[in-house]
Amino acid sequence: MRAGSRRFIITALAVPVLLYCVLVVSPYLQSFYISLTDWNGLSPERNFVGLANYARLLDDEVFWISLWHNVIAVVVIPVATLALGLFFATMIRVGRYRARGGATGVRGAAFYRIAYFFPHVLSIAVIGVLFSNVYDPTASGLANGLLGVVGIDPVNWLGDKQTAYPAILAVIVWLSVGFYVVLFMGAMSSIPTEIYEAARLDGASRWQIFHRVTLPLIWDTVQVAGVYLGIHALDMFAIVNVMSAAGGSGGPDNATQVLGNHLYLTAFQDSRFGYATAIGVALLLLTLVFAWVSLKVTRRDRIEY
Amino acid sequence: MSTLLEVPRPAATTAPPASPPVRERAGGAVLNVFTHGILLTWAAMVVLPLAWAVLSSLKTSDEVLADPWSLPSSPRWENFVNAWTTADIGRYFLNTTIVVAVGSALTLGMGALVAYVVARYTFRGNRAVYYLFVAGMTFPTFLAIVPLFFIARGLGLADSLLGLALIYSVYSLPFAVFFLTAYFRTLPTSLAEAAFIDGCGHWGTFLRIMLPVARPGLVSVGIFVVLGQWNQYLLPLILQSSPDKYVLTQGLANLAVSQGYAGDWSALFAGLTISILPVLVVYLSFQRQIQTGMVAGALK
């Protein structure tokens, strides 16, 4: 080892590792212990209550509603986003494919790529405020304004228990699609054109080409994208906190409540820190289960080309 | 990294494609109209809400309430002045700029240092340090917020812009370390060897040779980190309690609630526009780097 290596390694790592341990590692570790206490945050005393917080979770109606909403999000958001993303990416990349014989992409492909991707760089909080107004219950909102054009009465999008959560899910799909269009266009561009030429010579239809050629060849990317989307769908905190009725209550009547927001309200509104942390641990378990299941389910043999 | 989106297509260039039969060409034209119809519809769905917000920011509150399709009778630029000063969007904007500038600089500095040491030096505990950081990517931040809230208050980091910047930076470290370690490994070892022979010390080699060489990697990580920190919502919400320390996302969400009660819609839309337009300008200037950087970063 070169002279002074040891000292360099220690001085280089000391500050980052120390800060990281104090501000990141220690909170994660502490939270497992706090979830076993009845701590209310106001008093320094915290009594060890064992698994009582976890037992209480089982009887907490709002917890189950939130969990159910998270599960819906984990299914709906990846499926809808991947379907739309693959659809648009295919259309942009191979739209002119028969007309010109090469997978050059439609005219305006660059514009579509730029426009579709843009919502992804905006803050979810900003998008939430924007769509709270788009979904305004009166005819002055954009959504109801569009309905008004075809003569439909205004809908109370975020105030009605039936429409509130679907409306919020739609916003997440809206902002996510563009990212996956760009991702899949990238993956598709690395498929050699000869494969498409051969498929066309064999008389494959558009759908067959997509289903039998494109999709299997980019399956790795689709799979990773699905897991990534699902893990993000488990969050949903910012969008619900900004868009749900009465300043982030998860309302109306918990119709949009998700685990993240339930945790936040339990901790920082009700000061039930022990219990809130137990919700956090449940969320971690859910994340791990989701990642494991989705990797099992989507496993396919990798195709080399 | 740019290879991800721009892979050369040899087949398309070596031989001009044969002309397809006429029947197919006609079918292609119909399909083309259909394709463009659908693609344009989605483009409209993306652009319309944003354009509507910008348009509404130039209206009076009464005009906002009247009709989503009407144009402002005369553009009300004073809405922006109101939003910037009275509604404090200016302060939030400045706060966010400070926090993100300091936060991402700290992320890149610490991230590059840790990544360089882990990638280039063999020592006992090397793997342990690497996995300690990388493990941070798999845990949801939610799990940490309750203890973090109390630790930050205890250390005086809560309700402080620099404190928030420091907390942003350590929560961005796992991604930065992971990405940059991979990057430093790809750089040729001969560079550092040459620097050592020329009498550079360890710090000199890192600062004067390796950091400049790693610039492309730092830029990619930087774009990802800046955007992530600019858009952060959960951490400021729990840590910043006094309104003069709010960041933009938090301030805007707060404004949405208060302006809703006050009926001051034009200031709210002006605030929204102020939050969107700078991001749009940066995005349009660097869209290729941003797209490649984010797509590559997300899938690492």
UniProtKB/TrEMBL annotation, chain A:
It is a multi-pass membrane protein. Pfam families: BPD_transp_1 (PF00528). GO terms for biological process: transmembrane transport. The chain crosses the membrane at residues 7-29, 67-89, 110-131, 164-188, 273-295. Keywords: Cell membrane, Membrane, Transmembrane, Transmembrane helix, Transport. CDD domains: TM_PBP2. Residues 67-294 form the ABC transmembrane type-1 domain. Signal peptide: none annotated. It is found in: Cell membrane. GO terms for cellular component: plasma membrane. Belongs to the binding-protein-dependent transport system permease family. This is N-acetylglucosamine transport system permease protein. It comes from Nonomuraea soli.
UniProtKB/TrEMBL annotation, chain B:
PROSITE patterns: ABC_TM1. CDD domains: TM_PBP2. Its main location: membrane. Residues 93-286 form the ABC transmembrane type-1 domain. The keyword Membrane applies. Residues 1-22 are annotated as: Disordered. The keyword Lyase does not apply. This is N-acetylglucosamine transport system permease protein. It comes from Nonomuraea soli.
